[in-house]
Each structure stands twice: as structure tokens, then as C-alpha cells.
Amino acid sequence: MTPLKCDPERLKKGENHWAWDPNEDQWYGLVPRRGGKPEDIRWFRSKNGRCPLTQSCYPVRAFSNIPSAFQGHTVSCYETPDGKVVFDLTIADGNVFFWWPSVDTPPGTVARRNKLQNNTTRWIFDPQAPTNSWVDPAEERGDHSGEFSRIDDRFVTKKYNHYWQAVIDGSKPYDFQKCGSPAGGLFNTLGHFTWDNSTTETYWAGPCATFQEPAFIPRAGSTEEADGYLVGLLNHLDELRNDVCIFDARNIAQGPVAVIHLPFKLRLGLHGNFVEQSEITAWREKREKELGPVKAAAEPLPWQKEAAGKTNGVH
Fold first, then answer.
1. Reported confidence tier of residue 198, pLDDT bands at 50, 70, 90
2. Cβ-contact 92, 118 below 8 angstroms
């Protein structure tokens, strides 16, 4: 849970719906995927900010001068043989949604997104731990500032090693005069990384371009992790058009192996996935021969009926 809060009294005054709270802990909730009940939820708390892993960060208010923590997008998640849950995601060291500042933020002093550092962070949660347990990150990778992480989707919920990200590399030049402010963030680089640190490679888009979120395409007939292609949209900010870039997923540093030049500009997008045509065809046939056409629901589902009028057991 990202520490953005809504206050009815603030709304009555006509102020922002949401406000960043730099003093609130990070919260993570763990619940059984199937058959979970309110009492099964395990909440884990952590510092809203960064400090050495060997140093206690509690209480958070004693460290109010350290950067804040804004959770980004998930890299992946899986269960270990001993029943613990590994959860990887990016965490920015400040309020990414700068348009919802904290209530005491002076005008004109809000940090902008391109100035933030996004660390790729690994958490390990123990479902047997008491709820409201305090946890520290198991690992934080600050050697790159990445977001919109992707993995080889065949390894979702499984132990994995490789991941790719759109990366903000502030050491590279950007032609602000020609391109203006980079819509969506200065993601001027694609990165390929591994948790065992065997791979760290990047590809820079140039001073007038940024990348959108990539997607992984497995190589036909291969089952080995990361054996495939990475596809992503390249934004030519000086020409207002896009390219579709296809990389060897294990060697993105060499540049794209194929580029489709689009003569027009696409809107910013994210969270796309690659699907085999054979899977689309198989689903279409199943729909036509077995399932029949999609029908609007005539009544609530059984679980919706059971849950109607109930609370979540907390509020």
C-alpha cells in the first residue's frame, strides 16, 4: 500500500483528494490465493525511506530526513521451498505522483519524477509471521533507476533470474530544446539484469528518444529462461513518431535485430503482453465449439451474493 491518503475533512475544504504522507509506513498484505478469509491476511510494515539494512529504521518518524518510498510496478513473485514468498518490485525514493504532494509541501518545491531513483527491491515475507510484523528489504539494487519491469512470462510464480526494465539514465544527454519535456518520463534506456549479477547490460535510445514498457517474446521451441526477444516502442520525440524495436533478449546491448518504422505517433501505453497466434486460434475455436458466445451476467455470482453487505472484516 503506497502512503497516499484521503482525508474527508481535507475534501470538505476543497483540497486535493489524495495527499502523500512521508511519515506513514510502507504496508504489504499477504493473503491465500484461494479460500482466503479476512483473518488470514498477514500485514507487513517497513520504513518509508532508505537506510542501511543493518540499521533499524523504526520508528520511521525518527528518520524523517531520509527519502520516501513509493512502490512501483511488480517485477515478479514466487514461493520458496520453505513456504516464504519472494516479492520483487521497484521502489522510488520520493513521491512519484508529485501532483499529490504532502499537505505541508511548499509550492514550487515538489521533486519531479525524472529526479527520483527507482531501486529494484526484493522482499521475503513469511506467511507464518504475526500480522503487522516489521520487515526490511532482503536486497536493494540501486545501480540503475528502472521501472516497468518485465520477465520471461513462462516463469511467472516460479523462481526466475532475468528481468528487463525501462531505465532512466541521467548520465546520458537529452536534447530538451528540440524535444521538450519527455512525456511519461525520461526512460531513455532499456536494461537487462539478473539477480545473480551475471548480467547487467543496457541500450541507450539516443538524445531525442525514449522507450515505452517492453514485452518478452519466447523463442519458438525453446524452454530456457530468457531465450527469446524483447519488443518495445521507441518514441522519437523530435519527429513525433514511433518505431517498434525487437531485440535479442539476452543481448540487448547490441541494439535491435529488427525495427519497424511507423509513419505516425502512438499514444503512451504500458502493460502489454505477447500471445502466440496458435493460442488465440485455439481459444477462438473453444469459444465457438464449446463455450458459446459471451453473455451478459443475469445475476450476481455466488461469491458476490455471499459477500453482499459484508465488510472486509477490518472496516
1. very high
2. yes
